Amino acid sequence: MIFGATGDLANRKLYPSLYKLFEKGNLSDKFAVIGVARRPLTNEEFQENIKKSVKSSIQKEDRIDEFASHFYYHSHDVTDSNSYAVLNNLANQLDSNYDLQGNRIFYLAMAPEFFGTIALHLKEDGLTNVSGFKRLVIEKPFGHDLQSAQELNDQIRTAFSEDEVYRIDHYLGKEMVQNIEVIRFANAIFEPLWNNRYISNIQVTSSEVLGVEERGRYYEKSGALRDMVQNHMLQMVALLAMEPPIKLTTEEIRSEKVRVLRALRPIEGEEIKEYFVRGQYDKGTVEGTQVLGYREEQMVNPESNTETYVAGKLMIDNFRWAGVPIYIRTGKRMDAKSTKIVIQFKDIPMNLYYSPEETLNPNLLVIHIQPEEGITLHLNAKKAGQNIAATPVKLNYANRGIDGLNTPEAYEKLLFDCMRGDATNFTHWDEVALSWSFVDKISDVWENQKAENYPNYNAGTMGPREADELLEKDGFHWWPIS
Ligand code: BG6
Fold first, then answer.
1. Model confidence over 2-22: pLDDT tens digits?
2. Nearest-CA neighbor of 309 among 407, 206, 381?
3. Total number of domains constituting the chain
4. Whose CA is nearest to atom 2 of ligand 1?
5. Do the domain assignments include residue 413?
6. Which of these, 57, 214, 265, 323, could form a disulfide with 16 (CB 3.0-4.6 Å)?
7. Can 232 be counted among the known catalytic residues?
8. Domain span at residue 285?
9. Both 78 and 205 in a single domain?
10. Global pTM?
């Protein structure tokens, strides 16, 4: 059951991903989807929407009619038990028609204010009373701060146990985010160096060219800290910093990630200025087009104090990472859409190849998450010619996916994982709670102190100047992302 079946996420991501799973044979023909949303629609109209959504993102759709025939629609009132009873009847009927063995997945792809209500109704109105498995997939935002996340979690947990809850962080479905562990734990050359003796700093950038688009209402209350740092950025940091798990099981991996978040140094009060920079975009030129400043966007307060950019320095106080800054930055309306991780290794003890024109570059391992996927290792090698001089060289690996085609969309992988009951690439409650408690300390201060310098970066740039200073005072600089 997909709650929010007429919404943007369902249309843009979920239906095309389900179609790909179906086409590849990863979804047998024993499946049925009930689209649940408020507006009245017939099954036929809903199936037409499904076809449209699939066709708009996939070129090859040979089996589209067969696929769409598995979709049913229920016009729903989220607060009305009678509506849940009708939904349950439909689900029971489909269960026997398609031989589903009492297995149900409930996907909440809708406004977060209803998450708790729906979960409670699912239980009280008998929808979770099944003979097979029941799973709840829940989209972000998972709460607005620790307290609201805790309340939401309590509501959900009355109907589902922790191992039945699949909290989506779509970054965990990205191929190269999943590759972080493999690069680290399947190569003899990195793991011995992966610590404060050899790494000088790590930089994680996730920049976007888009602004807030039509999401002003949500974003005004969220800002980049809650929208990106609490989830995607901290998840990437946890994967980069975790200890090797004993085994590749869900519990082992998650518990190592939790340990990183527990070791994350809390930044609070006056310290925030030292460790974090916030920004808000002004008008500017993005990819050749003039765009509005954040305060001129729809549904945005003309004096908004909301940050559209965050840069920060994280410290992980454990044996492996003591003293190694992990810099993160993310923002809207920057000059490129790019997610990249740069691991900067410490300089060698002595440079034998000093020349006035060229200094020796530090070794960098760059993990390209998107749009390109791959790895680049920056080394130094001999400059061709008579002199023994060093010059930078790059070893590049471009990830071309399994068949030379694009790698599967994050949602395709995550939906498949959920169907198979693999929760590894979903966030555990402990991770959510720890990241909120880290982020809350910063947002409490930012919300109560107006940023006098907003807007402080032009659209189409890499963010405010203070973000450069954050690294410069430690003797570093941001490595370019392109
Ligand atoms: C979402 C945020 O979680 O991630 C959006 O709510 C953001 O504001 C998006 O644009 C970025 O995802 P991606 O996959 O495009 O990097």
1. 999 999 999 999 999 999 999
2. 206
3. 2
4. 227
5. no
6. 57
7. yes
8. 172-408+429-472
9. no
10. 0.96
ipTM over 0.95: yes
Return mean pLDDT, the chain: 95
Listed residue (72, 73, 76, 60) closest to 19, CA to CA: 60
Kindly list the protein residues whose Cβ atom lies closer than 6 A to any atom of ligand 1: 140, 170, 208, 227, 339
Of 78-92, 119-133, 150-164, 386-400, the one with minimum mean pLDDT is 386-400
Instruction: Specify whether 251 is located in the same domain as 393.
Output: yes
Q: pLDDT tens, 292-327?
A: 999 999 999 999 999 999 999 999 999 999 999 999
